[in-house]
């Protein structure tokens, strides 16, 4: 990997600014899922165990008004981080100003500070959205607080914000290093290799509601993939493009011609459902039945059928690299989750293969099945992983120093 990583740096006696992704679900001060906090632990531990001072920055949620700040403070996150590390973590209820500077000045080697939500900068000033619009003066200010910058927030790597791109550019301008943390390094390694140099056979599995969400992914991966398995709502636009009846199924009529072109460009690589689990309405309790690749007028496809599951499994058996993004059906309803779960099991059963999962529903399926430990890599960034698979440069990665 050509990017500078935290392992390349001596952090002893250094103030290390770390952009982490602590954008976790919080309700009434209670964290619903701490996976993103856990994912940042290796980088944080490396810093404090090697005599550095860890100064953590993160956004949390979307800030639209002062009222949002009550629910979107990082204070509960700092408390949870302290529990996970079994050591004190200082929370500073600001991210700019004398209180921040004093807290950092008072740090000792091995100390950890969590600054307040970076997106408070989008409302706590007279200059507009300083964080999300990448205000250079804000990036320069944050950069002035540390000796080293580490970006470990892949989930925001597709965005050019002051807390990732702004700090990194200011650090480099000042002759200071901007490195990737362990989580960022892992994301670059797995997703980057999958896109640039996959071991074959390479199988891409795509699901979700819309073809329009995955056009660039399909275009980028057609020449690289041996097979592209398509399920979910987007499959019905492709089936319509083939002339099949799709009943009341979700589809994008304005993308049918595009689907025809993608099928032509793929030259047989795109594999569509040969049967579907259809229902009379979008409800877990709706009357349902397995139908072929033509769906009755009064029904809608809500999951791939058993023959499709077996077809997908057969293709996956010989795969050496698999990238999965998006569910095979209406996974949120138990009666239409089987296709997604069966695909997940197939990935877990693969031996000597690199398996990569990206996207909220695919990740949820992996956790529900308990197969996460058997998957090579589960991406922490939905939008970022999608753009990476599209072959696009991510600003949060581009700005990291080269080795």
List the main descriptive attributes of the protein structure presented here.
six-stranded parallel β-sheet; elongated; Rossmann fold; 403 residues
SSE topology sketch:
Elements: E1 15-19, E2 26-27, E3 30-31, H1 35-49, E4 53-57, H2 75-85, E5 90-92, H3 98-105, E6 112-115, H4 136-143, E7 148-151, H5 162-173, E8 178-180, H6 182-196, E9 202-206, H7 215-221, E10 227-230, H8 234-241, H9 256-266, E11 270-271, E12 276-279, E13 288-291, E14 300-304, H10 306-316, E15 321-325, H11 338-349, E16 354-358, H12 360-369, E17 377-378, H13 382-389, H14 395-398
Describe this structure in words.
It is a single chain. The chain is an alpha/beta fold and 403 residues long. It folds into two domains: 6-183, Phosphoglycerate kinase, N-terminal domain (Rossmann fold); 192-389, Rossmann fold (3-Layer(aba) Sandwich), CATH 3.40.50. It has 14 helices and 17 strands. The chain has helices at 35-49, 75-85, 98-105, 136-143, 162-173, 182-196, 215-221, 234-241, 256-266, 306-316, 338-349, 360-369, 382-389, 395-398; strands at 15-19, 26-27, 30-31, 53-57, 90-92, 112-115, 148-151, 178-180, 202-206, 227-230, 270-271, 276-279, 288-291, 300-304, 321-325, 354-358, 377-378. The strands form four sheets. A six-stranded parallel sheet has the order 5-6-4-1-7-8, with helices on both faces. A six-stranded parallel sheet has the order 11-10-9-15-16-17, with helices on both faces. Strand 2 and strand 3 form a beta hairpin. The chain is elongated and about 70 Å long.
């Amino acid at each position: 990997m050509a990017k500078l990583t935290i392992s390349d740096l001596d952090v002893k006696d250094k103030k290390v600014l770390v952009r982490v992704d602590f954008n976790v679900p919080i309700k009434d001060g209670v964290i619903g899922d701490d996976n993103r906090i856990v994912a940042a632990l290796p980088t944080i531990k490396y810093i404090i165990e090697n005599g550095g001072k860890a100064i953590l920055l993160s956004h949390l949620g979307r800030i639209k008004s002062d009222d949002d700040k009550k629910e979107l403070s990082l204070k509960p996150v700092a408390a949870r981080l302290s529990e996970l590390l079994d050591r004190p973590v200082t929370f500073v209820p600001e991210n700019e100003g004398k209180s921040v500077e004093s807290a950092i000045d008072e740090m000792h080697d091995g100390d950890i500070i969590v600054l307040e939500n970076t997106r408070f900068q989008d409302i706590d000033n007279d200059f507009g959205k300083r964080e999300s619009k990448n205000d250079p003066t804000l990036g320069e200010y944050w950069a002035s607080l540390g000796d080293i910058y580490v970006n470990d927030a892949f989930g925001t790597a597709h965005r050019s914000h002051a807390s990732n791109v702004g700090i990194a550019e200011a650090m480099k301008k000042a002759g200071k290093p901007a490195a990737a943390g362990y989580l960022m390094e892992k994301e670059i390694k797995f997703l980057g290799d999958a896109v640039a140099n996959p071991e074959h056979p390479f199988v891409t599995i795509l699901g979700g509601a819309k073809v329009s969400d995955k056009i660039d992914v399909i275009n980028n991966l057609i020449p690289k993939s041996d097979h592209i398995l398509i399920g979910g709502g987007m499959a019905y636009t492709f089936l319509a493009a083939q002339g099949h009846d799709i009943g009341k199924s979700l589809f994008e009529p304005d993308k049918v011609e595009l689907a025809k072109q993608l099928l032509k460009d793929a030259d047989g690589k795109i594999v569509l459902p040969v049967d579907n689990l259809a229902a009379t309405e979008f409800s877990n309790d709706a009357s349902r039945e397995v139908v072929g690749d033509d769906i009755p007028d009064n029904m809608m496809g809500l999951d791939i059928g058993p023959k499709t599951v077996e077809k997908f499994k057969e293709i996956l058996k010989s795969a050496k690299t698999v990238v999965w993004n998006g569910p095979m059906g209406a996974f949120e309803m138990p009666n239409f989750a089987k296709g997604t779960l069966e695909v997940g099991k197939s990935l877990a059963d693969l031996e000597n293969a690199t398996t990569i999962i990206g996207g909220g529903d695919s990740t949820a399926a992996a956790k529900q099945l308990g197969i996460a430990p058997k998957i090579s890599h589960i991406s922490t960034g939905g939008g970022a992983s999608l753009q990476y698979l599209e072959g696009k440069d991510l600003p949060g990665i581009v700005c990291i120093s080269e080795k």
